[in-house]
Amino acid sequence: MTEEHVFMEPQGFTKSMIEQLFASGNAPTILARHVISRMDTYGRLAAPFRGQRYDSYREPPRTSIQRLFADRNLEKRIGDYLESAFGTRLTVNRYGANEITLHAGTVATPEAQEPPSKEYTEEIWSLPQWNEQGDGMKAFLGIVLELMTASYPIVLIDEPEAFLHPPQAKLLGRLLVELSNADTQVVIATHSTDIIDGMTSAMNSANDLSIVRVTRAGTGNHVSQIEPGSVRKIYDDPLVKYYHILDGMFASGTILCEADSDCTYYQAVLDTVDRLKNGATVQSVMPHFTHCSGKNRLPKAVEALRSVSVPVACITDFDMLRDPTDFEALVNACGGDLGKLMPWRNTIASSIDQKTQKRSRISAKAEIDAIFGDPVKQGELTTSEATKISNAIAKSSGWREAKKTGSSGLSGEAATAFERLDAALRKLGIFLVFVGELERFHKTIPADNKAVWLRNVLDGELYKKSAEAREFVCDAVQYVAG
């Protein structure tokens, strides 16, 4: 082989030099310094935002600062990013005696050919230097400058979100993808959903971005990965993107609910618990609560979470059993045996359907007369009154009653079927609200308006007093805890 250069920057190595390094046993340590750029949380704050001047007519730029000095277009691009993140631009001082300095802000005086005017020099030196700025500004510029100027094949960045506000972290996440090139592999360790949101919103993230979830298991780690080709497919789904379903990647597990108010209530109940039945502290297994605005969207959320091995449990109202299509989709998403579970579901549904009856004219008129017969009430109908009128003329639905009674309204074969079905569903991570619906955990509080019901329950701290709710939530949490 010829004496070809294997690595040219930041230091050149010839074939014989590399052979000597391997012979001495020092190759991994020494070569790694010249192949891998490692930017840890605090180390990048010490990045030099000033550098030595060089003879630009005879020498090529070798450092990040020198490349910035030589490339005014690069200075402008980075300045645009900094203005978006912090509202201030970057100015390179090219007229120091022996060094190049970076400053925050812009110079109004026109820059003439070297040597610059006294006014320009005085103004640029009046700008604060970048190494005097806050940690967030220094960390952001350090990462962006490294990505846009470094020649390392591998760049490792630990917690890029450190010192940044959420919008800045999201912008940086996008830039981490958009500024990387085909010759450099960027590996990022993060605990930030903002960084993930930014990365997945980048235009070229479809095939080049992979997400790996690492969890601790005893003394070892467990790794699961979303392959590059699947990242865009998952994150382009509005359910995943805008409901923050995959925030559960950063928790021990996820509890999926039908609505936001459900999450609020169950989280409040869990806050009253110290330990689970298996002795584990709640704090050690604290799950992520999120919702997907309706039971029919639960299966898709389950599939997204399971794609990165996030343990997930679903809490859903009793009437999940009403629609066989919804039931089938959720059971399939959770890996259940539909052939075994569907007969039990059918027995329960048939029993409830038989209780549906048409309203008689007499009973409907009596309920409506009661609403309009109050001489004190004047003006427009309230929302509550309109709902009561609608209910008065509707069929007497067995399922409407089932949401009030839950499993306690079943008897005979239907009650037995529910016991068996409920036990089987819990093993899959599906927890039916056995009292019917959330509001039935506190029956004395009017439930015409769920938002008002929830406010009354929270203000009165009633969530602390329901043993049924507490045991129910703990069972779901213990499932995701494993």
Task: Name the descriptors.
482 residues; alpha/beta; Rossmann fold; four-stranded parallel beta sheet; three-stranded parallel beta sheet; 14 strands; 46% helix; elongated; disordered N terminus
Short overview:
46% of the residues lie in helices and 13% in strands.
Q: Could you describe the 3D structure shown?
A:
There is one protein chain. By secondary structure, the chain is of the alpha/beta class. The protein has a domain at 40-209: Rossmann fold (3-Layer(aba) Sandwich), CATH 3.40.50. Helices cover 46% and strands 13% of the residues. The protein has 21 helices and 14 strands. The strands form five sheets. It has a four-stranded parallel β-sheet, with helices on both faces. Strands 3-7-8 form a three-stranded parallel β-sheet. A three-stranded antiparallel β-sheet has the order 4-6-5. Strand 11 (254-257), helix 12 and strand 12 (288-291) form a beta-alpha-beta unit. Helix 16 (361-372) runs antiparallel to helix 17. It is elongated, with a radius of gyration of 31 Å.
